[in-house]
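Progress note, sequence design subtask.
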């Protein structure tokens, strides 16, 4: 592991492997340019060194920058207005619910139930659009409501892939939406702290699943099947989680599902204190778990549902064209269907007009690498 002085870092530096602030926290994923504000933040925190196993990469050639600028404009194509309205309505509804819980006001659970019903319905009808929005259309730093809605989306997709019946999806989706509400009762000075938590602060955070359970069960009057999701979502498959140190199938199935979805959502979402990881890198991180944190069967189903290259992922193909994953292949996760955005000659194609290549049948073409969309915002 190489140690790099923060004073030697420069805006625009890219490395071939992730750069870490410490053993657990990534500063930047591989091949993602370092920003000046990130360097300034390290200085403000008093961090003098970072580590990486990678090498400093050279400047990108102008042609690649031009291609990325063209691709960025394609990614900004307007979404279907009806779908965008559905998403915004659900998001605003969640903001209202969380605000009421935070202020200890009475919550109309009918509004939560409506959001759950809408989410399940939209995933049955518009899965591709919704997942694409989560990964690539939703720019800027994410907030509590977005994180919950996106995590519930992923949890529901896992449930659907597992064949859970619709009436059983309801408690799963509801639990996923509400699993972190206990954080609303934790002091903001702790929740929003960007530096390392001291032992007392860390212990306060570890109490939030109990707060969540109490709010869901006692204040919102949902069933234990919903509330237990919140209580157990930080338990680990190997028994090293909290609050009770449960292991394996002692942990409720829905909590095991939300644990996977929550971890993935946290990696792909933008936070004030770190970059997001692209879907491919986040999926690789989950695959390296080796039965420590997650139920291996749930993780396998999640990968089947999302693919190694999740819907909306931007990929470079072996023929030099660039495309967006439009359909995953559960039998061959490395060979999804890809809509071409930029052809082999580097010419952008009008949004939605590019040909779709099924890599399962087009054996001569394969994915070379995933392209981080955050580097495309020229």
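Output:
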């Amino acid at each position: 592991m190489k140690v790099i002085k923060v004073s030697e870092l420069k805006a625009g530096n890219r490395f071939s492997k992730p750069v870490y602030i410490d053993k657990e926290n990534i500063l930047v994923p591989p091949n993602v340019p370092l920003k000046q504000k990130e360097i300034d933040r390290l200085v403000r925190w008093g961090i003098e060194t970072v580590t990486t196993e990678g090498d400093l990469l050279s400047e990108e050639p102008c042609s690649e920058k031009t291609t990325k600028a063209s691709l960025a404009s394609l990614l900004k194509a307007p979404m279907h207005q009806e779908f965008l309205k559905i998403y915004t309505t659900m998001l605003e509804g969640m903001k209202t619910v969380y605000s009421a819980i935070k202020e200890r006001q009475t919550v109309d659970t009918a509004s939560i139930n409506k959001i759950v019903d809408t989410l399940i319905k939209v995933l049955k009808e518009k899965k591709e659009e919704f997942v694409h929005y989560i990964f690539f259309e939703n720019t800027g730093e994410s907030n509590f409501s977005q994180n919950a809605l996106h995590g519930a989306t992923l949890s529901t997709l896992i449930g659907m892939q597992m064949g859970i019946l619709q009436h059983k999806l309801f408690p799963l989706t509801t639990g996923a939406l509400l699993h972190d509400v206990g954080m609303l009762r934790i002091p903001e000075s702790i929740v929003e702290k960007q530096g390392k938590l001291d032992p007392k602060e860390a212990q306060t955070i570890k109490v939030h699943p109990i707060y969540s359970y109490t709010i869901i069960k006692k204040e919102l009057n949902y069933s234990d099947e919903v509330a237990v999701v919140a209580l157990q979502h930080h338990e680990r498959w190997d028994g090293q989680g909290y609050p009770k140190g449960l292991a394996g199938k002692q942990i409720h199935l829905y909590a095991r599902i939300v644990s996977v979805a929550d971890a993935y959502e946290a990696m792909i979402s933008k936070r004030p204190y770190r970059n997001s990881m692209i879907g491919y890198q986040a999926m690789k991180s989950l695959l390296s778990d080796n039965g420590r944190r997650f139920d291996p069967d749930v993780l396998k189903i999640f990968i089947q549902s999302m693919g190694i290259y999740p819907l909306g992922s931007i990929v470079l193909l072996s023929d030099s064209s660039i495309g967006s994953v439009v359909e995953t292949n559960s039998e061959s996760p490395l060979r999804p269907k890809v809509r071409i955005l930029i052809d082999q000659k580097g010419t952008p194609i009008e949004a939605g007009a590019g040909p779709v290549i099924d890599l399962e049948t087009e054996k001569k073409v394969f994915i070379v690498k995933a392209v981080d969309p955050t580097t495309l915002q020229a």
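The first helix runs from residue 36 to 45. Work on this subtask will continue into the next period as scheduled.
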